[in-house]
Design a protein that fits this description.
Number of strands: 26
Distance between the termini: 40 Å
CATH class of the largest domain: Alpha Beta
Oligomer: single chain
Largest sheet: 7 strands, mixed
Structural class: alpha/beta
Number of helices: 12
Bound molecules: flavin-adenine dinucleotide
Helix content: 25-40%
Strand content: 15-25%
């Protein structure tokens, strides 16, 4: 197999790039490779975990997008790269049910390769973290969390039925008070109320579904302005979510989490949201990588010393205009996809790459606190100035980010139709996924 442009990873950045390039150059020139068959925008995974977003409604089929947006799709995980021969290797695909091989190992040649494979969890060597926690790095993780939550709710409900005075219930511990941990905690609190309404009637959610958020820094949302952290802490407190800061987790067992001060937190369900790193296989490709495993790229997002190879998004280590590392965010992946779009279109016309380097623009951060409100800061055009936002309007802005991604992928008309269809569906289906 051969394609002029190969993009590996159809996430927040890679999929937008494939759709935009496909529309211009068509399926003979543009190929997307992904290890999954459908796309879910990663910033919505806390909603999948809480059951408030159904992946079977939300997931966008890569094959459908390929057909509609004019690129080719290859299903399978990239495992190796031969940069001299300019081809990648894609692992065989086997059926999960019986392990039978569905697709063999394949080779795909390229003229330009873009690696956009995102990130995975960084457990920092904490004993038990890998074995006894669930992360939110992939749709399967989020779905696994949801099913465990449903099972634990059912068991807690049954215990209450057997003995109304039982002091049972369940303990959920979230490790990491960054945006992922905070958003998940708030979403779970709201979802637990909805679950209770759908039949878990003996559970008093504030008392019986205990949610604890552990953060190693002195405040949650540490990279954001203090005012945003304080507002988020207040909103979590109002939702009966216990927040413990300055808490360094040093061990995780099947039913509890311990910190370095000797505190122990009961945990029926434990989420690891304390850090990310680049996928490990990147270290075996023969590309320059940083200590955190990210691919080292130059100011034009080209992999240093490897002609024809580019990287974007969470898996790429690049700096903003001031030499600071670009944070692993969907907004960075989106901007980098737009930058590489211009580069690759120029190369297609036989022109040299853009002279101007990639410059990251931080438009601020919004953190969702349940379905009603959002807090965050928006960056103004004045240097260093940021505007605090909270409440319903911030919520509308947060939701519009998801719509903007869909618009880049599906186009305006289909995004509008889909948003309307979902509005109607939410009036005819349960507010959380119950099966
Ligand atoms: C719960 C949560 C909330 C977040 N909220 C925000 C937010 O509010 N704002 C924000 O800016 N950012 C947010 N983020 C971060 C944001 O999701 C990421 O920074 C962004 O998705 C990175 O985009 P990407 O294109 O680099 O990778 P991803 O979007 O992670 O996509 C990677 C793709 O690569 C594919 N892939 C992986 N390995 C292979 C392989 N070997 N071969 C082929 N395909 C492969 C995967 O299947 C996936 O489709 C959040 C993240 C989480 C988990």
């Amino acid at each position: 197999m051969q394609s002029d442009i190969v993009i590996v990873g159809g996430g927040a950045g890679g999929l937008e790039l494939a759709c935009k390039l496909g529309r211009k150059l068509g399926p003979d020139k543009v190929t997307l490779v992904d290890s999954r068959l459908y796309h879910v925008w990663k910033p919505s995974l806390h909603e999948v975990a809480a059951g408030t977003l159904d992946i079977h409604q939300e997931g966008l089929s890569y094959q459908m997008l390929a057909h509609d947006r004019g690129f080719s799709f290859v299903y399978g995980a990239m495992t190796a790269l031969d940069a001299a021969a300019r081809h990648i290797t894609i692992a065989p695909v086997t059926a999960p049910s019986d392990g039978e091989e569905v697709l063999p190992e394949r080779r795909l040649g390229y003229r330009s390769l873009v690696i956009a494979v995102g990130s995975t969890s960084n457990y920092f060597g904490v004993p038990g973290a890998r074995e006894h926690t669930i992360s939110l790095n992939a749709t399967e993780d989020a779905e696994r969390f949801r099913l465990r939550l449903l099972r634990l709710l059912a068991q807690a409900e049954q215990q209450k039925e057997d003995d109304a005075a039982a002091s049972s219930g369940l303990d959920i511990v979230i490790i990491g008070g960054g945006a992922t941990g905070v958003e998940l905690a708030a979403e779970l609190r709201e979802a637990s109320g909805v679950y209770a309404a759908y039949g878990f009637r003996r559970l008093q959610v504030r008392r019986d579904v205990r949610i604890t958020l552990l953060e190693g820094a002195p405040r949650i949302l540490a990279p954001l302005p203090e005012r945003v952290s304080a507002a988020a802490a207040r909103l979590l407190d109002q939702r009966a979510i216990r927040v413990v800061t300055d808490c360094r987790v040093n061990r995780i067992d099947p039913k509890q989490v311990s910190d370095n001060k000797g505190n122990v937190y009961p945990a029926d369900l434990c989420v690891w949201a304390a850090g990310i790193r680049a996928p490990e296989f990147l270290g075996s490709l023969g590309l320059p990588v940083t200590k955190g495993g990210q691919i080292d790229v130059d100011a034009h997002l080209a992999v240093k010393g490897v002609p024809g190879v580019y990287a974007l998004g969470d898996c790429a280590a690049c700096t903003d205009g001031n030499g600071k590392p670009v944070p692993p965010r969907a907004q960075a992946a989106h901007q980098q996809a737009d930058y590489l779009l211009k580069t690759l279109l120029r190369l297609d016309k036989g022109e040299p790459p853009q002279k101007d380097p990639y410059v990251y623009r931080d438009y601020g951060s919004l953190v969702s606190i349940g379905r009603e409100t959002t807090v965050g800061s928006l960056m103004g055009s004045l240097r260093g100035a940021s505007l605090f936002v909270e409440g319903f309007m911030a919520r509308i802005m947060y939701m519009s980010l998801h719509l903007m991604h869909h618009q880049a992928v599906l186009g305006s008309l289909r995004t509008g139709l889909m948003a309307f269809a979902r509005f109607l569906i939410r009036r005819t289906t349960p507010l959380v996924k119950l099966h």
